[in-house]
Specification:
By secondary structure, this protein is α+β, with helices and mostly antiparallel strands. The chain has four helices and ten strands, in the order βββββββββαβααα. The strands form two sheets. A six-stranded antiparallel beta sheet has the order 1-2-9-4-7-10. It has a four-stranded antiparallel beta sheet with strand order 3-8-5-6, with no helix packed on it. About 3% of the residues have low confidence.
Length: 187
């Protein structure tokens, strides 16, 4: 009888985001924990789970087994833990520094989510996963653009605080406006 499988990971970095994609056999009960100084977005990319129990800072949530595309948003500094069992799964963890979101929208805080659906985020993470290991210029430019788009998406859709309630949407701060204008003119 074989022992527990060792997860295999690949990773890449594009602009403000880092992505770690893991394949793991969870036929035996598996537990995960994290407390990161950066935001983490966990995306279930595929494979069967029979059971999933999660908690954030000790508050439990049992959303049921995930489907491909379900996401968990773990804000920076928060303690996330989960236990799962099932089969061979694949998931990605997208990491973003809070400072990167602060540069974009003035507040780097984001709200937690459990088993949330966000098709843009899911498909973008899938596409970035396909770019890991590619070293041609086109792949690099696509990865940088997707990384920037994902950071903007998180800053707009998941931010917290008083600015999140505003009816007009987020505004770029002066530094971010200057960087965006420079990038547009350069490219």
């Amino acid at each position: 009888m074989a022992g527990p499988s060792i997860p295999t990971e690949i990773q890449g970095r594009w602009g403000p985001v880092e992505l770690v994609v893991t394949r793991e056999d969870i036929r035996a009960a598996t537990a995960w924990q994290m407390r990161e100084p950066r935001h983490a977005v966990i995306v279930h990319l595929g494979g069967p789970m029979k059971r999933l129990e999660t908690e954030l800072d000790g508050v439990a949530a049992r959303p049921g087994p995930p489907s491909a595309g379900d996401i968990w948003v773990v804000p920076a500094g928060r303690r996330y833990a989960s236990q799962a069992s099932g089969g061979r799964i694949r998931y990605g963890v997208l990491y973003v520094e809070p400072e990167a979101l602060t540069e974009l929208a003035g507040d780097g805080r984001i709200a937690p989510r459990f088993a949330h659906r966000d098709e843009f985020l899911y498909r973008s993470v899938e596409r970035l996963a396909g770019l890991i290991g590619e070293d041609d210029d086109l792949s690099g430019m696509l990865g940088d653009s997707l990384g920037q788009a994902l950071a903007l998406h998180l800053a707009q859709r998941y931010r917290t605080g008083p600015a999140a309630a505003g009816p007009r949407g987020p505004r770029l701060n002066e530094r971010a406006q200057a960087r965006l204008q420079e990038r547009i003119h350069t490219h």
